[in-house]
Amino acid sequence: MKKKRAFTLLEIMIVIFLIGLIGSVIGYNMKGSLEEGKAFKTKQAIMKIREIFELEIAKGASEQDIADDPEKFLSHSGLVKKPKKMIKDGWGETIKVDVGADGNLKIASSKYSNYKRQKTRKLGKGT
């Protein structure tokens, strides 16, 4: 009869450590992917909002009226099912709509601007 060999406590601990190490590396890489996804969602939302507001301006709405109540114009356009969700960026904050000094609409997200700045800073350090 052969004697069955069991795992030692040390072997089990090494395997658990390796699984934890691999999991943390995957988790760290996923964080960057999540941020990129939020930035992409925000960029697309800003583009769509801009196009909808340009259509509303073409219909006769003023830039100042749109900046005062952007959600109202999103819902009245008929192009957006959930205007409250559309006006939020990927991080859940409200996208800002203002009239610039030149009289044109400025549509921006502070979190998206910070993300772009950080990404530019990282790219600058890498070169």
Task: Compile the SSE list and pairings.
Elements (H helix, E strand, L loop, with lengths): L8 H51 L3 H6 L1 H8 L5 H4 L9 E4 L5 E4 L1 H17 L1
Antiparallel strand pairs: 1-2
Describe this structure in words.
It contains five helices and two strands. With 127 residues, the chain is mainly alpha-helical. The chain has one domain. A two-stranded antiparallel sheet has the order 1-2. Strand 1 and strand 2 (105-108) form a beta hairpin. The longest helix is centred in the N-terminal third of the chain and has 51 residues, at 9-59. It is elongated. The termini are far apart.
Using the alpha-carbon principal axes, give the shape. Answer: elongated
Distance between the termini: 65 Å
Total of domains:
1
Radius of gyration, in angstroms, nearest whole number: 25 Å
Major beta sheet, specifics?
Answer: 2 strands, antiparallel
Helix fraction?
55-70%
Summary?
With 127 residues, this protein is mainly alpha-helical. It has helices at residues 9-59, 63-68, 70-77, 83-86, 110-126; strands at residues 96-99, 105-108.
Defining key terms:
two-stranded antiparallel ribbon, elongated, mainly alpha, 68% helix, 5 helices, 127 residues
